[in-house]
Each structure stands twice: as structure tokens, then as C-alpha cells.
Design a protein that fits this description.
heterodimer; A: 425 residues; alpha+beta; 2 domains; eight-stranded antiparallel barrel; 26% strand; disordered C terminus; B: 554 residues; mainly alpha; two-stranded antiparallel sheet; 8 strands; 53% helix; disordered N terminus
């Protein structure tokens, strides 16, 4: 396919083929028709660097912070892992964290069920007004109380309102390493920038600066852990590259980044199942279309504001990465390995942290307060002209993607870089 | 109740043992003597399940292990005449029966399935018990119960009820006895009391017909036709056959035949090395079986197609679970038809993952197993088992640095003349399927060497499985094998010398009708010979056909 914007007519035809309307040769490249490769990302993890020193400073989780606040005798009594529940109760009571199930059932763990105003219908997401009424009826502090746990609970905690609990940021440290995975997004080499593992200067990855010192972040940066964990298994990211004339060098290909409505499946060896079919999520906002080029087997896309989803057992987070670039390599075994680089909006990133809930943050050793304050502090992109504050933070995510088929019931062109550029004009 | 059941079990066991001595005749690996044709067939597991679902409803679960079915010359239907029930097997049937009966008498089902209870007009429940026993017995035994049978069962029910202090428990004990009775577990033909000698009676006709066409017990309409004598008249028989062929249940019966014919039930025991074939799982294996059956019924039933087209069809039933095996997108949830394009190597059911994976080793292909299976199942040929002292070292060494392809390794193995004689029959076909790995996935190379898929079939050279499929399509041996198999499936025994001319006639008719499977089955179902008691001497066949013709004329 030549350079230029995606021709809608051609795209419609192409998508129709991808949807399985036409049979394919058995040795056709997986993805649909000749000239198209499609993949499903089986791990999409924030990435950065690893401290060379094992004694590099770590940011404490909520339990560690809270223990450090307690008198020595009480600290000694509640330090053991067997006392976690007592420690948590003590912390929640002291800070006044609240969590109530909205509906009778198993949601919300050991939570009590909230009293509901008469106009709130069972299992129907409350409106903001109704939420305020529920909060008031159940004695939440004024203007406090957020939906949590996939809208099954109402909560007030250091995750829903981090700036109410600054004490829980005590001991926070940023990632202090000099090396980090990522990309030079702004084309500059600044004092705060990292050096890439390959020696490239000016790497922009302030999100890793903000959260890379958490134990959880470091663990998920470990390739051995990534290989075993599939992230966003319930709404996997799909990457479809079409218009490929040559998988080694092609000056113009079309890249769609999509969200699957089908869950990832493991194969018999425990790895992600390749060549499975995925129907697209019906939300047109989750269809991202851009162009790119392949040079020496490495695909690099034009920047695009990219929306995708992390959907897991309790999290359903739509992430927005502005000015996102995908840089990835077609591997000899047919996979696509690379990363998504761009400015993650603070709102969409913190939404996932908040959805993790106070319980989740306590248990994985993070502090919502620490994370919130850090991303606000290290944000470095897309300044809000009204407030003068940055609204996004430079970031890098690695992914491993295996061949897949994309089943697209309808043509969608939302989030295309072409339309974004036109809108900008 | 326990004592009562134990006694019944013993009685039943004795009955079964006796029957097995009396009737069992076919032996695996031996041609059956013409003087000992069986007219008793044990229900297969699938038939048992179908019957229970038909009589009590699909919400009544059948849970337990069954006595394994036995294949004789490739067909479990023929093996069903060769098996009896072991004491351990009877215990299993008893356990299954108790579980079924518990569901029948559960509060959710009792009103629908039992429907009556002792009351003022029937204080001990004798009338209720008699009604239930008669109605249920008719469906389970596929014949009306004799008055003495009903009397005995009612007496036993009432006696058990008194001992156990509950009418329901007494009736439940009787139902357990019925479900472990030879009359239920075995399809026993009864000779007709009137009409031409050597024919089975109307209820046995209904049973033969129902198991051939639907693989289950006769429905009410068919039993009514048996009771009225309609099945003894050509037009009555034809009306029932056409009704049953038009029913969606004929698809079930067709699936049952091909499941047996292609031995697809073996897929239940199939396992693959997950490191070598990670995309192949238990659920995929199950789907491959379903795929083949759906592909067959799509062509033969839904489109009333030519049987031979099964070897050239590019229309494969497909589901999401199989997409990764075939490397194709599957756009719809559930099952749909996927059509491979011209030039694609997926042609015909022999290129479906069911047969390819079933006849391969857990971690590698086997042209020999594939060739043997195709020769035996689709061509009705016999390939002897390899001798015990064969050295397979060369064939099994998949990482041999010089013999990189399976063809090369097999050729080295064939340096042994003794081995070569059988391999010549199997490997020519099997090697043409080498572009499909042990899980049925397509590949062009093995260890970097392009795979050679040339071969010979019936002395005709071919290149690729598509060409082989066309040769199969055009070979009379393929359609003759099917005709013979359907005949053996319906009759529950192998073709004897006296049957051969009838089978040959059947094949001629099959060819004349465009190789339509439905017409083949219809011809068998309408043939009076299908309803004879034992070995069909030419004389008795002629007599039967003459009698039917006279009936028609009258």
C-alpha cells in the first residue's frame, strides 16, 4: 500500500476479509489475508530499569508505612505476616477507610452492605447524585465516597482520595537508576532523562521514575515473571499490520491497535495460544488506526493517541497514551515483540491504581498516596493550558504478541492519526 | 431394599450370562460361522444414553462407567453382537440405574415421569404400579410386557413397598430391576408368529429401524405402527421410514454410524505431547470429532450430497477452538461452515484433524498408522499388525541428522523386505498426508526439507492429498466399503457369503442413486432382508422379498 491516509473503501474491503468472509490459504500469513499480520499482545507491562544494586532504596507499601508510625511495642506485635489482618484493621480504623457493598452478595469481600436510597435499583450503577446520597446515608465524610471494585462497592480510602492521607506517602522514594527502557519521545536529552539499555540518551520514562522503586514494579519488570503472567487477559490488545509488501522493509503499512472482546487462552504448554480468533470490542473508541514503516524487520508507527483496556478480575481500566509510538520487531518465530511508548494520561493511569482498591494496594505493597503524588510530581507531558499543569507522564510498556486473527464485524476508524491531524488543523 | 435389589441383580446376572451363552456368536478376529448368527446385541453406551434421554428426558443424567464397547472388524455395531456383561459390568449398570432412578423419583421429576400414586381408589398402588411398569417397560424393552411380567413386577413392587415402608421405594426398586434387565440392556429379536418364516416381529422391526436410523429406542409412533401391524405392510413400513428419515433425529443416527465407521470415539482417549503440539488440547480433540461429524452431516444430510464428495470437499465445519489448528480466522461463535479455497491442501475428511491426530503418535506423525486406518476404515481392507520383534529405531529417531524427513526414515526401515510388504500398502497413502503434523496442523517442511507428498493408489501415481482425494472419490472400492459398512452396522454382523449378492445389489442401487447416503439407508430400511432373524440364506431372502411383494400387491 502506498503512502497516505488509509483509503476508506480499501479499508472496508480489507476488514471484511479479515472478518473471515473469504477463505484463506492455509499458509497465508496469520491475521487475515496476504499482506496482513495480526497479533494479540499477551503481556503488556510498564517497563523501565532494574537497579544494579540490590540494596537500592525501595518505596514502602502501606503496611510498612503504617507500621513505622506505630509505637515500638505495637509495631513488634503487628509485624508478623500472621497479624496482617489485625494490622489492616488497625490502619483502616485509624484512617477512617470505608468500604461497603452496594448489593448483597460476595462483592466487596468482608464488607457490610450499604443502606441504599429508594431510587437506587439493584445492580444498576448509581448516578453521581445517587452516589452522593448513598455516601451521606452511610455516614461517609462530606463529598467523599467513590465507586470501586467494578462498581460493586462504595469506598473512601487512601486510593479513592490520596491527598486526604499524605502520611501514607512517608518513605516514598523514586527510582534512582540511570538506565531505563523507553524511547526519546521529545527528541531532547535532558537532565532528568534516562539512558537506554543500548546507550541511547534522552530516554523519556518518568512513569518509571515515579513508580519504579516499588517492589511490585521491579517484580513485573522481570522477564521471568512476565513470561508467566498474562495481563489484560479479558480484553487483550490486538495489533494488526496491513498493507505489508515486505516484512523486512516497507515504507508504509497501516497499523490498527484494537481491543479484543474474547479472553486470552493458554495453550497446552501454558503459553498464550497462537492463531486464535478474537472478536473486537464493540466500542469504536477502542479502534486506533495509524501508519508506520518497517525497517530491517522493525516496525515503527507514527504517533497516535492510543486507547486500550486493562481488564482483569477486578480492574477494568481504559488507558490513554498520548503521542504513542509502537516500535516492535517481527521475530523469526512469527511473533511481534516490542513496546508502546508515549505519554500516559495521569487520569487514566491513576484510574487503574484506584481500581486496585485499598485492599489490593495493601496486599501488593504499594501506596496509592505515594503513586498519586509521584505521578503528579514527575508528569512531563501535555500541559493543561488553563492550569499550567502536566496532564500526562512519559512511559514505556513492553509487550510480547503472538499471531492471531482479528474478527471485525464493522469498519471503524476512530482514533486514527489522520483524523486527529485533521481535527488539529 | 438392598436385599431385594441384590436378589434382582443376581437373577439378572444369571439371565444375562445365559443369554450370552445362547446368542453371542461373533468373535473378534474370526469369521463368524454361518450357523450361529446373533440376534442379540448389547446396547452401546451411546444408545443407552439416548434411550434414557428419550424415555425420561434430557435432564436425567447418566453417570457412571460402562462396559467398554468392542469393535469387530472396525465396527462396534458388529461387536455389540459379540459382547455379554461381566459381573463387574453388571454392578456398573446397577449403579448407573440407581442414579437414574433416584432422579426419576426426585421431587422435580416424579409428577412428570411417574404420574400416579396410591390413593383412595388404589390404596396399595397396584394400579399405579401396573400402569407405570407397562408404559415404561414398553419404551425400555421396546416391546409390550407380557401379562405375567407385569403381574410379577407389580407383586415385586408391592412386596418391596411393604418391606421398605414406601410405595415409591418399592416402585424404584422395580425400575432399577428393569434397567438392569437383559430385555433392556440387550436388543433381542423376537420371531414373528405369523407371516413368512424367519422374519422378526413388528416390535423387533421397530427396534431395528429405530436403532439404524436414530440410534435409539422406537418412539411412540413407531411402536404404534408395530402394534397395528403397519410395519408388516410395505406402505406402512415406507411411511415410517420416510417419517424417520425426514426427522432431525436421522442426523443423530447418521452421526452414530460415522462415529462408529471412522472409530471417532477413540478420540476420547487421545493425548498429544503438549510441548510439541501446544495448540492441541482435550477440548480441541473433542472439537475435531464434532467437526468431522458435522462436516459429514452437512454434506450427506443437509445437502443430500454424494458420499464420494467427502473426499474432495473443502467445506469444513469449524469452531473457534479449531481455528489455531487450521490457522484460519473463525468469525462466528459456535459452529459454522468454513470453505477452504482451491489450491489449499485441506481437501476431504482425511485432511481433518480428527483422523490426522488420531492416527499419529503423541509426538510425531505416522504415515503407517494413517495409511492403515484409511485402508481399514475407508477401504474395508485388512492390514496385519506388525510382528513383535520389529526394530523401529530408525523410524522413531526424528532427530536423525541424515534422515530428516519421515519419508526418508521409513524408506530406510523398508530395507527390511519383511516390513516392506505391509508398508507398501499403508505408507503410500500415509506419506501423502505428511504435510499435516501429528496434531493435524499444516506444514510445508520437516527439518527444513520440503515434504514430498507423492504416492500411488491403485497403481495410479498422484502428487498431494487433493489428488488422492479425487482418486478415492472415483474408486468403486471406497463406495463399496461404505455400503458394506452400513449393512454390517444395521445388521450387527459381518457380511457372509450368502449376503454378498444383496450387498452387491445395494451398491449398484447406491451408485444408481448418485451415491446418496440417505437413499442407501432408505434402501436397507425398506429391504425385507433387513428384518430376517438369522443368517440370510438366499432362499429365505427370496421368500421374504416375495412375501413382502405379495403384501404390497394385496
Amino acid at each position: 500500500m502506498g503512502k497516505g491516509n488509509l483509503c476508506p473503501t480499501l479499508a472496508v474491503a480489507m476488514l471484511g476479509l479479515t472478518a473471515g468472509g473469504t477463505a484463506l490459504a492455509a499458509d497465508a500469513p496469520t491475521g487475515g489475508q496476504p499482506g496482513t499480520r495480526a497479533f494479540v499482545a499477551t503481556g503488556l507491562f510498564l517497563s523501565g530499569g532494574t537497579d544494579a544494586k540490590s540494596d537500592a532504596p525501595r518505596s514502602p507499601g502501606n503496611f510498612e508505612v503504617y507500621l513505622s508510625m506505630l509505637p515500638p511495642a505495637e509495631r513488634a506485635e503487628l509485624s508478623s505476616p500472621g497479624k496482617r489482618r489485625d494490622l489492616q484493621k488497625r490502619m483502616w480504623d485509624q484512617f477512617g477507610f470505608r468500604r461497603l457493598s452496594l448489593w448483597p452478595g460476595d462483592f466487596g469481600g468482608r464488607s457490610q452492605v450499604a443502606k441504599l436510597p429508594p431510587d437506587v435499583k439493584l445492580h444498576q450503577k448509581p448516578t453521581p447524585e445517587q452516589l452522593r446520597a448513598i455516601a451521606a446515608l452511610n455516614g461517609f465524610p462530606k463529598d467523599r465516597g467513590s465507586l470501586a471494585y467494578q462498581n460493586q462497592t462504595i469506598a473512601y480510602s487512601s486510593c479513592t482520595n490520596p491527598y486526604d492521607f499524605p502520611a501514607l506517602a512517608k518513605g516514598y522514594v523514586p527510582y534512582t537508576g540511570k538506565v531505563s527502557y523507553g524511547m526519546n519521545l521529545d527528541g531532547k536529552v535532558g537532565a532528568k532523562d534516562f539512558t537506554g539499555p543500548d546507550g541511547e540518551k534522552g530516554i523519556d520514562n518518568q512513569l518509571w521514575r515515579a513508580i519504579g522503586a516499588y517492589k511490585q514494579s521491579q517484580e513485573m519488570n522481570d522477564p521471568a515473571v512476565r513470561e508467566k503472567v498474562m495481563l489484560s487477559a479479558r480484553a487483550p490488545m490486538l495489533i494488526e499490520v496491513s498493507g505489508i509488501d515486505d516484512t523486512v522493509n516497507d515504507p508504509d503499512v497501516t497499523v490498527r491497535v484494537l481491543t479484543g472482546a474474547d479472553s486470552l487462552v493458554r495453550d497446552g504448554s501454558g503459553k498464550p495460544l497462537a492463531r486464535a480468533s478474537f472478536t473486537l470490542d464493540p466500542d469504536p473508541a477502542l479502534v486506533n488506526v495509524t501508519h508506520g514503516r518497517i525497517v530491517n524487520g522493525v516496525l515503527t508507527t507514527d504517533p497516535i493517541d492510543l486507547r486500550f483496556v486493562f481488564r482483569e478480575q477486578i480492574v477494568d481500566n481504559t488507558r490513554l497514551v498520548r503521542g504513542a509510538v509502537i516500535k516492535a520487531t517481527f521475530t523469526p518465530d512469527g511473533n511481534l515483540d516490542g513496546g508502546v511508548f508515549g505519554y500516559t494520561t495521569l487520569t487514566s493511569f491513576y484510574d487503574m491504581i484506584e481500581q486496585m482498591t485499598q485492599d489490593g494496594a495493601d496486599n501488593v505493597g504499594m501506596s496509592c498516596v505515594g503513586v498519586r503524588m509521584a505521578i503528579d510530581r514527575f508528569a512531563d507531558g501535555y500541559r493543561d493550558p488553563k492550569t499550567g499543569r502536566f496532564t500526562a507522564i512519559s512511559s514505556a510498556m513492553k509487550f510480547h504478541a503472538v499471531p492471531a486473527f482479528v474478527i471485525d464485524p464493522a469498519m471503524r476508524t476512530a482514533n486514527s492519526n489522520s483524523s486527529q491531524m485533521e481535527a488539529a488543523r | 431394599m438392598k436385599r431385594c435389589l441384590s436378589r434382582m441383580v443376581l437373577v439378572t446376572a444369571a439371565g444375562v450370562a445365559g443369554l450370552s451363552i445362547l446368542f453371542s456368536s461373533a468373535s473378534p478376529g474370526k469369521p463368524s460361522p454361518a450357523t450361529a448368527q446373533s440376534s442379540v446385541r448389547r446396547l452401546t453406551e451411546a444408545q443407552y444414553r439416548n434411550v434414557i434421554a428419550d424415555v425420561f428426558g434430557r435432564n436425567v443424567e447418566v453417570v457412571g462407567r460402562f462396559e467398554p464397547d468392542l469393535r469387530v472388524d472396525g465396527l462396534a455395531a458388529v461387536g455389540s453382537s459379540a459382547v455379554s456383561i461381566t459381573p463387574a459390568g453388571l454392578e456398573q449398570y446397577d449403579a448407573i440405574a440407581r442414579h437414574i432412578v433416584a432422579q426419576v423419583f426426585s421431587p422435580d421429576n416424579r409428577a412428570r415421569l411417574v404420574g400416579c400414586a396410591p390413593g383412595p381408589g388404589d390404596p396399595d398402588g397396584a394400579t399405579c404400579a401396573a400402569t407405570f411398569i407397562q408404559q415404561t417397560g414398553l419404551r425400555l424393552f421396546r416391546r409390550p410386557l407380557a401379562p405375567w411380567e407385569v403381574r410379577d413386577d407389580v407383586a415385586q413392587t408391592l412386596g418391596s413397598a411393604r418391606t421398605l415402608g414406601s410405595f415409591d421405594e418399592g416402585l424404584a426398586a422395580t425400575l432399577v430391576g428393569m434397567l438392569t434387565s437383559p430385555s433392556f440392556l440387550f436388543r433381542i429379536d423376537t420371531p414373528a408368529r405369523t407371516g413368512p418364516s424367519g422374519m422378526v416381529d413388528g416390535y423387533s422391526k421397530a427396534s431395528r429401524l429405530s436403532f439404524l436410523l436414530w440410534n435409539t429406542t422406537p418412539d411412540d409412533a413407531l411402536l404404534a405402527a408395530a402394534a397395528s401391524g403397519a410395519l408388516d405392510r410395505p406402505e406402512g413400513l415406507q411411511a415410517q421410514v420416510d417419517r424417520m428419515l425426514a426427522s432431525p433425529r436421522f442426523t443423530d443416527g447418521t452421526r452414530a454410524f460415522f462415529d462408529d465407521f471412522l472409530q471417532l470415539s477413540e478420540i476420547d482417549h487421545l493425548s498429544k505431547d503438549a510441548l510439541i503440539y501446544p495448540a492441541f488440547s482435550t477440548s480441541v480433540a473433542t472439537a475435531t470429532r464434532e467437526q468431522t461429524l458435522r462436516t459429514i452431516t452437512d454434506l450427506l444430510i443437509d445437502h443430500r450430497g454424494d458420499y464420494r464428495d467427502l473426499f474432495t470437499t473443502r467445506r469444513f465445519a469449524m469452531t473457534r477452538a479449531l481455528g489455531p489448528i487450521y490457522d484460519v480466522p473463525v468469525s462466528k461463535p459456535g459452529w459454522s461452515i468454513y470453505e477452504f479455497p482451491e489450491g489449499d491442501p485441506r481437501v476431504g475428511i482425511v485432511t481433518q484433524a480428527s483422523l490426522l491426530a488420531l492416527h499419529a503418535h503423541p509426538g510425531r506423525t505416522s504415515p503407517t498408522l494413517r495409511g492403515k486406518a484409511i485402508r481399514e476404515a475407508l477401504l474395508c481392507q485388512q492390514i496385519p499388525a506388525p510382528p513383535a520383534n520389529v526394530n523401529f529405531a530408525v523410524v522413531q529417531d526424528v532427530n536423525n541428522p541424515t534422515l530428516k524427513t519421515t519419508r526418508q526414515r521409513l524408506e530406510a526401515h523398508l530395507d527390511d523386505e519383511e516390513c516392506a510388504s505391509c508398508h507398501k500398502a499403508t505408507d503410500g497413502i500415509g506419506l501423502s498426508l505428511e504435510q499435516f503434523d501429528g496434531a493435524g496442523q499444516f506444514r510445508r517442511t520437516e527439518h527444513g526439507i520440503p515434504i514430498d507428498v507423492t504416492g500411488k493408489f491403485d497403481k495410479v501415481a498422484f502428487d498431494g492429498v487433493a489428488k488422492l482425494g479425487q482418486l478415492f472419490h472415483d474408486s468403486p472400492r471406497v463406495s463399496e466399503c461404505l455400503v458394506s459398512a452400513v449393512w454390517r452396522y444395521g445388521n450387527g454382523r459381518n457380511v457372509q457369503a450368502g449376503d454378498q449378492s444383496a450387498v452387491d445389489d445395494l451398491h449398484r442401487s447406491f451408485a444408481a442413486h448418485g451415491y446418496r447416503f440417505v437413499d442407501l439407508v432408505r434402501t436397507i430400511a425398506l429391504d425385507p432382508a433387513f428384518y430376517t432373524m438369522g443368517a440370510p440364506a438366499a432362499r429365505s431372502l427370496t421368500a421374504a422379498r416375495t412375501a413382502m411383494s405379495k403384501g404390497k400387491a394385496s
